Amino acid sequence: MVDAAVTSSSSPFTRKDVLLSMRGMRAGFTTDDGFVRAVDGVSFDVQRGEVLAIVGESGSGKSVTAMSILGLQPTLEIAEGEILWKGTDLLTMSEDDRRAVRGKEIAMIFQDPLTALNPVHTVGRQIGEMARIHEGLDKKQARERAVEMLDLVGIPEPRKRADMYPHEFSGGMRQRAMIAMAITCKPDLLIADEPTTALDVTVQAQVLEVLVDIKDEIDSAIILITHDLGVVAGLANRVLVMYAGRSIEVGTTDEIFYETRHPYTLGLLASLPRLDDAGDEALVPIVGSPPSLIRKPSGCAFHPRCRFARVPGNCQTDDPALRLVAGDAHMAACHYAEELSGVTVESLRSMIDFEAEAARIDDTLPAEPLEPEDESEYEAALRDVAIAEAAAHPGVMDRGVRDRGGRDGSEWPAQPEDPRDGEVAP
Amino acid sequence: MTLADPATTAATDSSHEPGGPDELGASRPFRADVWRRFRRNRLAMVGLTMMVVLVLVAIFAPLIAPYGITERTAGSARQSPSLDHLFGTDDIGRDVFSRVVYGARVSLRIGILATAISMVIGLILGSLSGFFGGISDTLIMRVTDVFLAIPYIVLAVAIATVLGRSENAIIIILGLTGWLGIARIVRASFLSLKRLEYVEAATALGFSRRRIIARHILPNALQPIIIYGTIAIGSVILAEAALSFVGVGPQEPTPAWGAMVNAGRGRLTNAPHMLFFPGAAIFVTVLSFVFIGDGLRDALDPKLK
Amino acid sequence: MRRQRRSLKLLALIMGLSLVAGACGSDDDEGSDEGSDEAAQEEGVQGGELVDLGTFAQGPPEHIDPGINTTSDGWQVGGSLYDGLAETDFSDPENPETVPVVAESWEVNDDATEFVFTIREGLKFSDGEDVLPSSFVRGWERASDPEFAGDYSYLFTFIEGGAEKLDGEADTISGVEADDDAMTLTVTLAEPYANFPAVAGFQTFMPMPSAVDELDDQSEWERGIMIGNGPFIMAEPANDQEIVLEPNPEWDGTQYDESLELPEQPYLDTLRFVIGSDLDTAYNAFEAGEGDVTNFAPGRYQEAQDNYETTIDTPFLGAYYFMFNDRNEIVGGPENKLLRQAISQAIDREDINTDVYEGSRTTATGITPPGIPGMEEGLCDYCEYDPDAAEEAYQEWLAEGNELTEPLPIQFNADAGHEPVVQIIIDNLAAIGIEAESVSIPSEDYFGQLAEGACVFCRVGWLADYPTYDNFTFDIFGTEALDGNNYGYSNPEFDELVAEAKATTDIDEASELFRQAEQVLLNDDIGVVPINWYNGQQVYNGDKVAHLFEEPTGHVVWETVSLTG
Amino acid sequence: MPSYIIRRLLQIIPTVFVALSFLFFIFFLLPGEPARLIAGGAERNVDPGVLERIEERYGLDDPVLVQFGNYWQRTIQWDLGDSYLTRESVNEMLGEKAVASLRLAIWAIIIEIIVGIAVGLLSAIRRYSIGDRLTTILTAAASALPVFVLGFVLQYLFAVQPNKWDWPEWARLRTSGIGPDTWTFFFIPTGEQWRYLILPAITLASVTTALLARMTRGSMLEVLRADYMRTARSKGLGEREVVLKHGLRNAMLPVVTLIGIDFGTAIGAAVLTETTFNWPGLGSQIVTSVQQRDLPVLLGFTLSVVLAYALVNLIVDLSYAWFDPRIRLGKGDHG
User: Fold this and answer.
1) What's residue C43's pLDDT?
2) Highest mean pLDDT out of C412-416, C529-533, D121-125
3) Chain C, window 466-525: residues with a beta carbon less than 8 angstroms from a chain B beta carbon
4) Which residues contact C468 (CB under 8 A, 6 or more apart)?
5) DSSP letter string over A385-413?
6) C62 at the D interface (CB within 8 A)?
7) A35 and A94 both lie in a single domain
8) DSSP code of D89?
9) Under an 8 A CB cutoff, do D324 and A411 touch?
10) Which end of chain B has fewer CB atoms at under 10 Å, N or C?
11) How many residue contacts between A and D have a Cβ separation below 8 Å?
12) Per-residue pLDDT at B285 exceeds 70
């Protein structure tokens, strides 16, 4: 494949002060059905102080990409590629060296703070542990540090809170605690995996704000993994869009939002509800479901769902390479990227016959594959309800039914207290 | 948020099995999926094979056993294994191999029926307790407390004194003393499942409680129960040995494995085959159930992979 | 007398009732000549400790106080702590004899109703108190106190006024009189009984020191250090782990009749009875060197013999048999004699002995075992395995218009090791066309149910309390047999012969009458199917124990036991 | 917390009451007359006069309800009566035997916890390794081998054989008995004592150890995949610390519950073990007493077992709360 070539040494990404550089990463999992190519030739750089957003649907490989940096998925098999951290390949490092990087230089903020925090230890202890591991603080000092960190992320009464357990925190507070934990050692890079997804809409903004403030405070780079372009807009400098394990469009935030060069990105944008919209403007869903990563469609992996695909044509036969399409660093992997110049979300919307679309949705939706293992009949029904809702308000569809156990693909059952599943808010 | 018409929702075809587990692969029927995963587990398949062999042995015992269970040769007591008597002979010259073969019938019957009784009692009481809570919960839990607190061997001896000693009595004894753990597990599953949204939603939609229990909670609680059950069968077969030890086991000439082990326990040094072969039969049975139970758990719960 | 006990202990015995039995005493006698060859002649040294694992291998004794004890294991201790008026001398096992011990002699009147015992002078209890005729009265009144009385208290009904005492109608037994000055004890019997001295030597009739009078509750006696007049004293109160005995300094074996050949003091310094809970564990403990003597389960006979040359298989005064209920419609009455004959002849007693008991028992040819004076072997006409004759008899019985509509129930007490025997009998009967089934009844209820008439064809075992022929006839088959021990057998002819024999003082004449009675039972009525006679099952550590002798009652004469250097 | 404990202790009362009353009435349903047993007449017939006297002495001729009332009246004053069989005071018997049982149980629990958890943990961490497979097979074997058979085998291997091989005295374990009964700090065997303790303790622990290992393994397997374990790894903790500091306590939650539920199994094992090794505890006595209808002993011993059960469950619940801060004591029932 050709992606790897794009981020060769001549790539515009390999400029000054690169912290992390992922090169030609191919990795996946062996399953009963075959090898899942979760990351299929991804390359990118992260520079000191920047915020890189990796965007995609669930199953696009964005989380796996992030996880591979810290090596947190023992079952992940890395086929090829390298991950240079300050010039050293993390993948060939000794386990001890790599452990020294974890937490101290690269820290992680997980999606669901309720399950990501250990329920049997106090929040203070879990935060302090970071300092104890990497800075050798004693118990008391560690606690002081934890209190300090909690204060920093804006948790009131940090001294009291430090002695409480995660379940005694509200969702937003938990995520703040999670952030506090991640920044304890002032890491150079923060990887935030869907940091706000599990939170109520009202809290999301607050948490993002904390994240931005912190970034300024400790001057670290951030890799923000999200499916939510709304989050990206306010936070990221640059955006990497992933689909089916590939990076399909890369550029600055403005480039991605306003000079979109890939139909998929355009689709994502069109399905995004806008708070400033009058409300009568219909949202446009991306129909169909993400492709199997075991048996990818031929040609462009996106072509079965693409409104602009030429079928039959090279979309079906040739896999488009990621290539420079505009400016000095705006790249996209579409044979017809140039033709998209000028197509905006608004114009896209006006193109669509919604009634025909609705009929099409009815046909395609039952294939929705995201249900959990032992889903009961009734839950299936509830899911159908959610899907119906989503069809009426497509903007939330991705979220409403997205990875309900989606960490590694299929974990289930969810914790009973897990709030994510039910959020089918309009 | 508008929910779909409850009637329609409820009418969703119950035969519709949810699709495959992963968002990556194609969907396929749930049962087939479990079976596929089960089949890939080597130990589970070993267990299943052993189980099938045991069941076949039980069914075809008369064809396999060279002698009858009471058939004896005078003057040939406690002979070591030979071609005539593969597992040797017992205290009065009966063929141990034949008795072990016929014993598969008795011991499997005891194991399965007693576990079934425990299951029924445990399921009913556990679900009542877990779902309704309140007084019925307190009451049922107090009762299980009482029964857990009274050493089961004491109960067993007492029941045996009333019922006499027969295979059926053993089944009843073990069934009546074995439901406590199941009731607690069911109750615990119910407590956690009850809080899941779909159950809450079903409640909100006004479904009858019986329906919710039967169609929504029980199927989900089944998994731990099935696993517990497979392990319970093994321990029931073993408990039969303990009952024999305290003198309330099945009586002669019933070729129950536990009773045979008990009869052979004083023969460790002079006729170890009397102890070894029925003991090995219990071991193989317990092991097969354990393997199957483990395999089932893994297959039903793929996140453990 | 007494049915064998103890088998009901938790784990019961694996096989058969091994040693166990109601016992009668005889302690100091010594088997210096005959006895078992293994018991060797060598005199051991004075001193040392002997650990016994067998006596209480299956659980602690219910009692060790001879006044209420009923079991042979308890008597191993009780008999070492107390000496009675008389004892049975087993030095000639064929012809045991009742000999005086604490009594110097006794006299009996002509109709065997009054006995005058003269007590030896100078004997003392371990606390220094003199043993006087009144000590016996004290012991007897105590053992017959209705508030305290144990199972064997019925023996006092042999004495005039004993029944009234037991019923609470009298405060004392009128038929007993002590004269401490003359050192005589005069006993008047309720009925003539020539063998009374054998009974008077039994454990229930031990003397007691005045210390017992100080107790509010007599059952406390055995929980403290019992004061006795026997060769041993208790080193400490009995506990649930062990009972430890030491020589009684006040005892002197040479004061007794010389024919008893007792030592001046017991050889052992310490006699330790370990209390166990399982016979196989006890045998393991023995093999592990944790003790010096033990009993073993019948199925280990061969193994023990192979590994040790020191097994003891003293023939016991006991029989293992099955009974027919004469009143039962299926098997009882003269009309079913052929069926009973068929059953008896169909049973392969030799096979039972070899397969189940590894040849450790003696195949019975009658009901009364060797060792009972007057007994003769081979009295039974139908006790030999003869399947052809059995089948013939069965066919004849059928031809008379009888039939078995249901399988013949073979009843036995559960978990005492009888299952294999019953299985063999079922197999034997099947061979001649009789269908039978095993019916096990919990030990706790078994004999009670039999006594209430439930017996059809039921297993019984009997061990003599004292070696008399009447103990094997009157007490278990007589119409008046105590507590309904006959389980339905009753024949006036038998009763008359036994009564006549009991009142006969000439031993040969009496024996002949007893044998006639036994033949009525065995051959005329076929009321009982003897299977075998018990033998002892003990093994000791030959490297350590120099001399150990087990009496036919299962009692070991501990004061004659000695160790090698 | 203290109020919770008090409330839980009060809850024991109805359990004790129902359990003992239940056994009391069961006893009267059983065939066979107690008086006959008291007379030692289990295997023979007893003179009716003797039976009458005994019935009167023990109040067995009173109506059942009167006996029931009397029983509770005495029990409330902690007067458990005398054994029908040996006429010994049940209070005294209980004192001695409960202590012996407790000592054995303590060691069995120590073995169980150390071995069971360690094996379960290793097995989970090295899943599908040879060690894991071996553990699966061994734990199945341990739960397939009757306790009494294991006991005999151990006796044979570690006591009988060493004697035959003439091993030095100290290297031979003992088959039976409690031995010198010398202990330091109540439960630490002193002097020769360990040679008596070790085999029964292992035997008693065998069944529950196997169960615990299996439970720990299953529970740990789930915990290993928990999000917070990944978080812990992301902090740069070593695998060992991740497992021990973050995994173990979480994995213990379901295991602790099991300990409470499996109390009955443990008592069953204790009955067989104590009998096999002649350990003078409650276990063997309690079955003998039900077989022999020795009501005072049966009820007295059951009372102590029920109390022990309640206590164990209280401890389980308290430790459960310690293991899992999400559990708030005093709210709702422990179940």
Assistant:
1) 66
2) C529-533
3) none
4) C195, C198, C372, C373
5) HHHHHHHHSGGGHHHHTS-TTTTSS---S
6) yes
7) yes
8) B
9) no
10) N
11) 69
12) yes
Q: How far is C165 from C157, CA to CA, in rounded Å?
A: 9
* C366-377 per-position pLDDT tens digit: 999 988 888 898
Give me the pLDDT at residue C83, please: 94
CB-nearest partner of C414 from B70, B251, B271: B251
Q: What's the CATH code, domain C86-213?
A: 3.90.76.10
Q: What is the pLDDT of residue A273?
A: 66
d(CA C286, CA A194): 72
DSSP assigned state of D169: G
Q: Which chains touch A (3 or more CB pairs under 8 A)?
A: B, D
Do A100 and A170 belong together in one domain? Answer: no
Do B165 and C414 count as a contact with CB atoms less than 8 A apart?
yes
Q: How confident is the model at residue C543 (pLDDT cuts 50, 70, 90)?
A: confident
For domain C315-535, give the CATH superfamily: Dipeptide-binding Protein; Domain 3 (3.10.105.10)
Residues of each domain in chain D carrying CATH 1.10.3720.10: 90-334
- Percent of chain C exceeding pLDDT 90 equals 41
Amino acid at C173: I
Provide the token pair at B189: 């599953």
The residue among D123, D132, D149 with the most chain B CBs within 10 A of its CB, best to mutate, is D149
CA distances from A359 to A281, A288, A354, A395, B190 (A): 19, 13, 9, 18, 41
- Would an 8 Å CB–CB cutoff place B20 in contact with chain A? yes
**C-alpha to C-alpha distances, D233 to A130, A270, C260, D135, nearest whole angstrom:** 11, 38, 87, 27
Residue A183 has pLDDT above 80, yes or no: yes
Task: Evaluate whether residue A361 is within a structural domain.
Answer: no
Strand A189-193 relative to strand A34-47, pairing: unpaired
Query: A367 to chain B: which residues are within 8 Å by CB?
Result: 27
Point out which residues pair with C49 in neighbouring strands. Answer: C270
Any C CB within 8 A of D89 CB: no
Q: Which residues in chain B touch residue A370, judged by CB atoms under 8 angstroms apart? A: 23
Lowest mean per-residue pLDDT among A270-274, A329-333, B106-110, C521-525: A270-274
Q: Do A103 and D227 touch (CB under 8 A)?
A: no
Residue A375 sits in which domain range?
366-421
Same domain membership, residue A138 and residue A99: no
Q: What is the model's pTM?
A: 0.77
A376 touches chain B (CB under 8 A): yes
The pLDDT-based confidence of C379 (bands split at 50, 70, 90) is: very high
Q: What is the predicted pLDDT for the residue at A376?
A: 40
CB–CB of D271 and B151 under 8 A? yes
CATH code matching the domain that covers D90-334, chosen among 1.10.3720.10, 2.170.16.10, 3.90.190.20, 1.10.357.10: 1.10.3720.10
CB C421 within 8 A of CB C531: yes
CA distance C448 to chain D (A): 6
Q: Indicate if the pLDDT at residue A424 is higher than 50.
A: no
**D:213-232 residues touching chain B, CB 8 A cutoff:** 214, 218, 221-222, 225
Q: Which residues of chain D have pLDDT under 70?
A: 1, 31-33, 36-50, 261, 327-335
Cβ <8 Å between C426 and B270: no
- Going by pLDDT thresholds of 50, 70 and 90, the confidence category of residue B132 is confident
Q: What is the CATH number of domain C1-59+231-308+536-565?
A: 3.40.190.10
pLDDT confidence band for C191 (50 / 70 / 90): confident
Residue type, B54: L
Residues in chain C: 565
- Is residue A97 located within the same domain as residue A137? no
Contacts of B263 in chain C (CB under 8 A): 14
What residues of chain B lie within 8 A of the CB of A292, using their CB?
A: 24-26
CB contact under 8 A, B75 and C442: no
Which residue in C310, C277, C242 sits closest to C561, CA to CA? C310
Residues D215, D221, D225, D227: is their CA dihedral positive or negative?
positive
- Give chains near D: 3+ CB pairs under 8 A: A, B, C
ipTM of the complex: 0.74
Question: In this predicted structure, what is the pLDDT of residue A314?
Answer: 84
As a whole number, mean pLDDT of residues B200-224 equals 70
Check CB contact of B300 with chain A, cutoff 8 Å. yes
